[in-house]
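Q: Predict the bound structure with nicotinamide-adenine-dinucleotide.
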Amino acid sequence: MGRIFAGMVMPDERRVVLVTGAAGGIGHAVARAFADAGSRLALLDRAAGDMPLDGLGDALPIACDLADIAALDAAVDQTLRHFGRWDVLVNVAGIMLFKPIAEHDAGDWQHLLAINLVAPALLTGHALRHLPTGGAIVNIASVHAHRTSSMVASYAASKTAMVSLTRSTAIEGQARGIRCNAILPGAIDTALLRDSPNVRSGVEVIEPADIGQPEDIAALALFLASDAARFITGAEMVADGGRMARL
Ligand SMILES: NC(=O)c1ccc[n+]([C@@H]2O[C@H](COP(=O)([O-])OP(=O)(O)OC[C@H]3O[C@@H](n4cnc5c(N)ncnc54)[C@H](O)[C@@H]3O)[C@@H](O)[C@H]2O)c1
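A: Predicted complex:
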């Protein structure tokens, strides 16, 4: 079985997928979905030691703080040396900061944007240099790119910027046959949601029916990275169970 792109056939089982935030809820589900499809995985997380690798097949865990640019560059080198190729990038890692804008200092802005925007942007640059024709980039943004609540301004701004980065990447990737799309999840049942002070305090109210599972996002990432999505690039896909559609 092979994937056909621009006349090339690339067996799925040879695809090498780099996933950031792979020790987290959505990142781990993304890793599992690609492993089940036969992909080989480079799994980046600052918490790589805690990463469950059972069922992930040919997986290379890499301990990497995405705020450390030398470590990020080294992780890409390690992936290319280990597997000899790189086909898909999934930018999953992200953090939230719960503070009013009036209490955000320069360090707060720089730290959050370093992880949520600069690291995905630098990895995108690496991907545009190394991915082959038929390669794909999937960015995990958030519905906060479009609608938000108080206390999370830096997070919301970073996710809007990530959607913009997705568009620019799609434009610059087109000539190289590399696609880039963003997923905007709503509330997904992970530690990030469960530990959210806004959810705990009631600033953000989420109905149980509006909470999705990490696998719901992973399935969409797998599709967007596949050649079944070969005409989809520069798109933002909301996956929120319909929460944003209501008045
Ligand atoms: N859970 C939700 O409701 C939800 C909704 C919308 C978007 N998202 C986005 O999905 C992505 C994943 O979130 P999640 O819910 O799985 O959260 P999570 O906290 O379970 O996972 C995030 C992972 O990123 C890693 N990470 C954080 N900072 C890092 C750094 N400096 N270097 C390397 N790794 C780092 C963490 O160690 C963790 O494993 C995030 O970008 C988040 O913004 C989540």
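A: Helices lie at 25-36, 69-83, 106-130, 153-174, 191-194, 197-201, 214-225.
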